[in-house]
Amino acid sequence: VIVDEAHSCAPGPGVRHLRFELLRKLAEDRSRHLLLVTATPHSGKDEAFGSLVGLLGPEIARAAAEGRDIRDLLGPRMVQRRRPDIRKYLETTTQFPRRLEKESKYLFSEAYSRLFRRVLEYIQGSMSEVEAGTRQHRIRWWSALALLRALSSSPQAVAATLRTRAAPADGQTAREADEIGKNLVLDQDALDGAEGMDAVSGSAEEDEGAAGGPDQRKLRDLAREAEALSPSEDAKLQVLVKEVKALLIEGYAPIVFCRFIETAEYVWRHLRDALEKDSAWKGRTETACVNGTLAPEDRQARIDQLDREFIGDRLPVLVATDCLSEGINLQGLFTAVIHYDLAWNPTRHEQREGRVDRFGQRAETVKCLTLYGANNPVDGIVLDVLIRKHKIIKDRTGVAIPVPMDSNDVLAAIMEGFNFRSAWTGHDAEQGEFDFGQDLLLKRNRLHDAWEDAANRDKETRTRFAQRAIDPAEVARELEELRASAGDREALRWFLHRSLERLGAVVTPSGTSILVNPRALPAWVKDQTGLREPARYEFGDEPAKGAVVPTRSHPMVAALAAHVLETALDPVGHGGGSAASRAGYVKTDAVRAMTTLLLVRYRYDISVGRGEARRTDLAEDVGAFAWRWGPAGPEYLPPGEAEALFSAEPTDNADPALARDKL
Q: Strand 254-258 relative to strand 285-290: parallel, antiparallel, unpaired?
């Protein structure tokens, strides 16, 4: 059993718990092989990591549960591969882009600053009216935090938060309110684009009294003030437009990541209009917006549509929420990432940037830009406590080290004890730093010290789990056997070229690819393979824009292979159209005597289980079997020599009568 994105199966609420239980039951059968594949095995939570790797063996699970060091037990079972390990490996070079990073700051306009101050005054007044630790206090605290996040995002996010009922109000106790608030307001680890991850949490309380109560009226007034802000008064939006145009001039295609649906749609509308009004970019860009209001399949469809419209010198611009930060590869279309909203989890930043900075990216460099408010204390905390420290450690170690504890808990604890109003009034924006006070600095320093310790431990772990522990000769031998039985890229290219050409398609070689025009293919072949439009199939290491990189398991390849086999065995039943024959007679210089070559299909009945649980499975394999006639009778050819005869080319025309006689 091979589990990709295995970190999404670590124990947790809802879907994750079910995934983990499924894997746990599968792993109970110790005769079953289990391979866990992930780029982020450790999210910073030791308990979840211990449970996940505990699937590899009961002794590991016991050691992890008891809090013992499990590295020695993991040694024979875990391999960590980094980019330097595979850039040059087994005489193969794998290209990865170079990542360029930059921060871009902005200052709130006077109108936005006025709104920020009014919201801070409302928060301070609201919190002072309730007793600390009570359910009402926790609801208001999470409502306040939701408002601060929205203020750092966009006027539309602020208005939506002010007009939406606070989700923590559904909690019957202070603890339940905290749990709901943590899941919705903070940046929890994503569950494959889980529903609601980009929705506002809300700040209005249903039990505040009648809709016309003073607190409700304050919220409505603040919402109207936010909605009244014009794009010209949103300095963050203006800086984004400037930075996007700068990237486009350099030839980069950017993705702009936002925290909230409302922000994404607001940014998309104004960015699209700004580009269309600019004579330098009118008609030269195609913009799109993808967020959690779309079903997963519709998100992919929107990306595919953008890809089709990316023609000539037109450049795509995508505005998205974190529903796209995992699970969808965007490296074939985009070359830059802009963090419009700061994530409150450094791993989320890595996930966003990983959409473009990954294998298959054809650009030599990708750019990652982080926007932040120089006079925004919320951005100041997130940058100082998490984002910049994460980058410092990554630059030094070469790998991303997760926060050694729950970053959401850290931020919540820091912000709960922080006087934002005081920091706001005492801040000099020109200095670029806030005076966070002694208590915050102590909490930050404790986190950073723990983070450094984690980085040092990771260095030792990388040595223990390094790829060099695997003998390359063993890997090369396995790879050679796999290629011999399954065929390499050149074999796949040969098959597609020959079979499609014989079925009537126009196939034109072009460097390491083939161009296929299926216009003349029989209709039923088009239906079986789904091949109806001209396409480029790439077999090299650097696929061209829009090219399909086929594999043996690609649906079109599998359908074509099935068609070729079926029509060869029963040409009459398939209308006579076939790319291959069941038998043939060829004159070639590849042999020195009459030689018979068979492609043999083996079928095996495999018995599985015992007693009443015993069942029989069918397995198939193919092999080459050949012999030539000599003075003493048939001489059987070694397997390698027999297989080579499948590539033999005719060197003379065969006599039709003789061919019929021999067959």
A: unpaired
Q: Is the pLDDT of residue 357 over 80?
A: yes
DSSP state of 567: H
Cβ neighbours for 600, distance < 8 A, ≥ 6 positions apart: 622, 623, 624, 625
- Tokens 């398991």 — which residue? 553
Which SS3 state, helix, strand or coil, does residue 245 take?
helix
Q: Which residue range is the domain that position 31 belongs to?
A: 2-78
> What is this structure's pTM?
0.77
More confident residue, 433 or 49: 49
Number of domains in the chain: 6
> Does residue 205 sit in the same domain as residue 121?
yes
Q: Is the predicted pLDDT of residue 443 greater than 80, yes or no?
A: no
Q: Angle CA(366)–CA(369)–CA(372) in degrees, nearest 5?
A: 170
pLDDT value of residue 432? 45
Q: Note whether 251 and 351 are same-domain residues.
A: yes
pLDDT in tens, 382-436: 888 888 888 887 877 777 777 766 555 666 666 665 555 555 554 544 444 455 5
Between 295 and 402, the more confident residue is 295
Name, of 159-168, 302-311, 331-340, 646-655, the range with top average pLDDT: 331-340
Q: Are 294 and 201 within 8 A, CB to CB?
A: no
- At 192 the pLDDT is 45
Q: Which two tokens stand for residue 40?
A: 């982020």
Q: How far is 62 from 50, CA to CA, in rounded Å?
A: 9
Q: What is the DSSP string of 182-217?
A: HHHHS-PPPSSS-TTTTS----B-GGG-STTSHHHH
Claim to verify: residue 410 and residue 504 sit in the same structural domain:
no
User: Which residues are CB-neighbours of 314 under 8 A, at least 6 positions away?
Assistant: 283, 284, 285, 286
- Is there a single domain that holds both residue 434 and residue 302? no
347 in the same domain as 292: yes
User: How confident is the model over 361-371, as pLDDT tens digits?
Assistant: 888 999 999 99
24 and 119 part of one domain: no
Among 17-31, 562-576, 598-612, which stretch is predicted with the lowest mean pLDDT?
562-576
Nearest to 393 by CA among 325, 449, 466, 434: 449
Angle, in degrees to the nearest 10, between helices 135-151 and 174-185 = 10
- In whole angstroms, how far apart are CA 303 and each of 280, 286, 319? 25, 11, 11
Q: What is the DSSP letter of 386?
A: I
Positive/negative CA dihedral, 474, 477, 483, 484: negative
Do residues 182 and 188 touch, judged by C-beta distance below 8 A? yes
The number of beta carbons lying within 10 Å of the beta carbon of residue 132 is 9
7 vs 496, higher pLDDT: 496
Same domain assignment for residues 568 and 617: no
pLDDT at residue 133 tops 80 = yes
